Amino acid sequence: MKGKSIKENAQVLAMKTALSYINGKDPDEAIEKVLSWVDKFDEKDGTVAVQRKYIHQYLGDKNGNWYRFVKSFWDDIDPDVRMRTFENFIINATIFGGRRKKEAMEKYGCNIPWTILIDPTSACNLHCTGCWAAEYGNKLNLDYDTLDSIIRQANELGVRMFLFSGGEPLVRKKDILQLCASHPDSQFMAFTNGTLIDDEFADAMLEVKNFIPAISVEGFEEATDFRRGEGTFKSIEKAIGILRSHKLPFGVSCCYTHQNVNVIGSEEYFDWMIDNGAKFAWFFTYVPVGKGAPTNLMATAEDRAFMYRKIREYRNTKPIFTMDFWNDGEYVKGCIAGGRYYFHINANGDAEPCAFIHYSDTNIKTHTLIEALQGPLFQQYAAHQPFSPNYLRPCPLLDNYGALSSMVHEAKAESTDLAAKEDVDELCGKCRTAAENWKKTADGIWSSTHPGEPV
User: Fold this and answer.
1) What letter would DSSP give residue 363?
2) How far apart are the C-alpha atoms of 2 and 424, rounded to whole Å?
3) 276 vs 73, 240, 324, 428, CA distance in Å?
4) CB neighbours (10 Å) of residue 294?
């Protein structure tokens, strides 16, 4: 699978020609032509048939919410950045990446993810309540050559999407920018607290064109500063102003807890994100990972059901792309972790099934990506997914008591926690009540929205 075939190169050139319409002045014409070209190149093997179905469904109404959202890229985003972003998402990550991923799965007999989440460093300039990274300090870093090797190995498997987390990934902003420049046909994103974004970094983002930040916000000033420290919200507003002035795309990452869920799910907050130029929002719920992590921040079943309803409501009315890490399990038929759609490499090089599951049997410093994906823990994930026929209960930790501990024990995986090793049975025990309560609520929602299907 190494390199592109002559046929692939010809198809890439044709697709790039089609995408050149993106830099035209008429977005309506551009959207129509790009959709036509995607249909044409996928008509034989149907690699992205499901994605095309939804794209046509949502972009079919020119007066609709989603059409307005896509058109905003012509008003708000630098044309060269827009071109590179569409090219990497549509051509490299989705069409050709999807084909290569399918080939790799057949060849190696294991999951091949769509994206990989990597921690370049455990260092962070903040000390957020309930965050495991706050306990680690500047102890671990993946050197540049290791990061570059991960990306090159992943590219051979069809993976062209990479996410950075930490720690605070922009502590390593120089190396991240170098990776972006060295791999222009891959797309990079980082979950960042935003406090290290300045004009110099924004200028560099314009130069590489393939990096998008997702800024962590906990709501408005009071809620954000409560978890992240006084003055953080004002620093975030400053970073957003810089990104907008440079016409750069960015999104927001939101962790909802029992304390801030009513703010995160409010129309006022969604309007704030949109008015400030965010193009997407990731939604996570708090997980008490790590010994001593507070459990009183965990969302209740009622909190989670509230977010389920509000996000779906706003998708029909608000021009922002949203992803709900747990509640969107119905769209991907369960859990996305363990290499099915993504997995996590921490700053020590441990290959973990999920950013919230700190157990591993393989380290990327001594094993290849394929060896990690073929390892016992990831194979356990592949064998047991989905963990419930009710896709609103996708998670083996928060939603299905005992599923995670069973896999970790069977794979003989070990805790990767740097501060204090956490027994998997203890972790699952902290989440047992939440899992049992959510089962009752989620089964009720699933039965009403998917009548006749098992729960």
Assistant:
1) B
2) 39
3) 14, 7, 20, 38
4) 12
β partners of residue 187? 161
Q: Say how many residues make up the chain.
A: 455
Distances (CA, A) of 34 to 8, 80, 82, 414: 18, 16, 13, 47
Exposure letters 133-169 (e unless 16+ CB within 10 A, then b) = bbbbeeebbbebebbbbbbebbbebbbbbbbbbbbbb
Angle at 248 between CA 246 and CA 254, to 5 degrees: 125
Q: Which residues pair with 189 in a beta bridge?
A: 163, 212
| Closest by CA position to 251, among listed 273, 287, 279 | 279
243-263 burial, b for 16+ CB within 10 Å, e for fewer?
Answer: beebbbbbbbbbbbbbbbbeb
- Rounded to an integer, what is the distance from CA 280 to the centroid of its chain? 11
CA distances to 58, 243, 431 from 53, rounded to whole Å, are 9, 32, 37
Q: Using CB atoms within 10 A of its CB, is residue 60 exposed (0-12), middle (13-18) or buried (19+)?
A: exposed
pTM of the full structure? 0.91
pLDDT tens figures, 133-145: 555 556 789 999 9
Q: pLDDT tens across 36-94, in order?
A: 766 776 666 666 666 667 677 777 677 788 888 888 888 899 999 998 998 899 889 98
359-360 and 187-192 beta bridge pairing: unpaired
Strands 280-285 and 342-345: unpaired
What is the number of other CB atoms lying within 10 angstroms of the CB of residue 323?
Answer: 16
The DSSP call for residue 90 is I
Q: Decide if 121 contacts 138 (C-beta within 8 A).
A: yes
Write the pLDDT tens digit of every residue in 275-305.
999 999 999 999 999 888 889 999 999 999 9
